[in-house]
Write the structure tokens for this entry.
Amino acid sequence: MPDKPRYAGGLPSIKSTVSELIKSKRVRQNINNLYKMNKHKGFDCPGCAWGDEKDGTFKFCENGAKAVAWESTDKRIGKQFFAQFTLKELRDKSNYWLESQGRLVEPLRYHCDTDKYHPISWQQAFALIAQKLNGLDDPNQLELYTSGRASNEAAFLYQLFGRAFGTNNFPDCSNMCHEASGIALKQSIGVGKGTVVLDDFNHTECIFVFGQNPGSNHPRMLNALRKAAKNGTKIVTFNNLKEVGLQRFASPQAPAELFGLSRTTISHDYLTPKLGGDLAAVRGIAKAILDTYPQAIDHDFIKHHTQRFDAYTEVVNATSWQQIEKQSGLCKPQLEHAAHIFATAKNRISAWAMGITQHRHSVATIREISNLHLLTGAIGKKGSGLCPVRGHSNVQGNRTMGIVERPTPDFLNKLQRRFVFAPPTKPGHKTYDAIKALHTSASKILICLGGNIAAASADTAYAQEALGKADFIVNIATKLNRTHVNLKHDGLLLPCLGRTEIDRKQGVPQIITVEDTFSMVHGSMGSCEPISASAKSEIDIVANIADKVLGARVSIDWQRYAADYSAIRDAIADTIDGFNNFNHHIKQPGGFHLRNDAAHKCWNTDSGFAEFFTGDLPSSLYPDDVAEIVEKANEPVFTLQTLRSHDQYNTTVYGFNDRYRGVNGKRNVLFMNKVDMQFLSIFSGQRVDVTTLWNDNTKRQLRGMEVVEYDIPQGNVAAYYPEANPLVPFESVGEQSITPTSKSIPVVITLNRINLEAAF
Ligand SMILES: Nc1nc2c(c(=O)[nH]1)N[C@H]1C(S)=C(S)[C@@H](COP(=O)(O)OP(=O)(O)OC[C@H]3O[C@@H](n4cnc5c(=O)[nH]c(N)nc54)[C@H](O)[C@@H]3O)O[C@H]1N2
Ligand SMILES: Nc1nc2c(c(=O)[nH]1)N[C@H]1C(S)=C(S)[C@@H](COP(=O)(O)OP(=O)(O)OC[C@H]3O[C@@H](n4cnc5c(=O)[nH]c(N)nc54)[C@H](O)[C@@H]3O)O[C@H]1N2
Ligand SMILES: [Mo]
């Protein structure tokens, strides 16, 4: 077993923060940045979407500091850099190397004859985009990808541009992330967002955390969990792995904890279900509540607010403990104990992230979590509710602004009335459809407002082949990544400002806004000088693209929006519910809360009631034909999950350590249970090849992964994303969500031949 620390946070976390600041080569500036982060009149952390009270002193965490130091650096790459390398050469570099070169500082165009990027002026770049887009036969040949860092203002203009151009093709990172949460919650409670606010964590007696690793990915959440634990709140964790941050946390802001003299136990109970076993686990909890805790069932709530309760009790009764135990990998007494905690608490919160959303049955699983809350009336009252913990800092806001492939008729009508054009009503593409359409050349042009679709997508070989077929790709980005070096024909790489930078228009610093996971909308304003005079804000770039492409076809004054972001906010106020007096509201410290109807027990479902989900447990994690292949395999088949280390932000690799899991200096690891290792006669440090089992005769394999013994259920293994993405079959997606099943891939493990040779 690797030597893991016994708690998260504490002095090592401060040491790591300081070392990141030093690496950025801007220590003083970045200390100032951290002071301003997540505070009124400061900027929103470009890390995760967790919310904050906007008072007090420092409001950052170690990984937020990494995100800031990564963005706010003096390292730059311009034309000299790009003169040195062909894209073929750059494709041989690692993701880490590409991003470590520094910030992009000038607009560039790819020339396939030299296989290099060359400088181009902004005016020429916009003119080229206009020429290319206006040369398409059909507006639906354009794909407009968004990564969840774009501000509300940039996202709003981007969708307005796309719809004015004539398409609803808005693939976004959310399609690979919390899509299932939005779909499940909409079906269940009528709103696709979480119902709690941060303060609810101060008023709850019970928090269930499913499939989430806040110690690395939402470290500020640990403060809320710590505070709750200290108040006697019972925290129950369901995680496939033993994650240190969910066990014990030492707050760097509490002197005794900082110096390792004490720490706070976070999880009262820590259950390790099998991958994809949470639906069964939650059903077991519901079964135990129905059988043993009738007093916890809120009949009044059920009667007045829900539908299909009888059908639900029937399906729960019909589910046997044997099925529940087999599928969840947990035993009845463990689930009964969790049920006891849930049932005897006065109010309850359930939180979840990718361990729940990236499976074939994610929508059903989230609906089952919601069932627990409907059963006990634990929604729409203080200290109770549902909390999908979003990833990217403004991914939720992007959706609110209309980055969605199936806009509602109501929203389109509002756009039509306000901007006097006829928006397209045909549903557009999600990420899955967009990549497929590029692969068949049905789509021709891709514009990426941030992100790294080539590395973030499932089935790397297929995705990169698809991108290689695009006639023209425009990337708007801060740093060089895999997507930018994957061009084959023609394209542009346009440098933009980040959150930490001052964005001046006619000398006036502009504010942008974001929405956190609690639906709080607030302003963000950077404080560093821009990285280069020729980098533009995302808003500026999108507005200029729209202006040049659409010209007189629509009467939208894009330049006015580019010059004054408050004008965009006025347009948002006119077209998106909840944003009345937007410019006024963002002046309040902490911003304002967008009303969530479900949190007021107002159900925007077809029936007007919250809906119990009444499906059976799935028969397998995989589609039928794959399940059959798995069943018939001659060798043991494992389920693989792909996850994040402590030293990365999605496809951005900051470093090669995963401190809380005791991994140092490497990322090509496979976490495995000791018994499984013994069974396959594999020892720690040995190298193995991992091969996916699927139904399409395509070989998906990663060679030479180093085995690390870990506290993970038998039959389950784990590897890092994005390196393990070549193993995720493109067609392996969630039911309804169409999200890649990044947390359940059937694989076989064989000793790497090089190792075998060494052994003989
Ligand atoms: N520093 C940092 N912060 C980030 C990110 C980052 O990469 N780095 N990414 C951001 C983004 S976009 C997102 S979406 C979030 C991601 O935040 P997380 O969801 O925490 O990210 P993952 O690393 O994918 O972790 C999934 C967790 O679920 C567990 N798990 C996996 N499968 C199962 C299962 O079937 N059942 C259960 N019960 N547990 C399971 C894993 O063991 C792991 O602890 O974080 C955001 N914040
Ligand atoms: N196997 C597997 N695959 C996964 C996941 C998984 O858990 N396992 N997780 C999925 C999830 S949850 C997500 S959200 C996606 C992430 O997918 P993406 O959002 O597409 O990927 P990121 O790695 O976050 O994008 C990083 C790039 O964004 C650019 N960037 C950074 N800041 C800015 C900015 O301010 N503006 C602009 N314009 N560009 C900027 C930089 O160039 C950087 O290289 O990946 C998904 N893919
Ligand atoms: Mo995400």
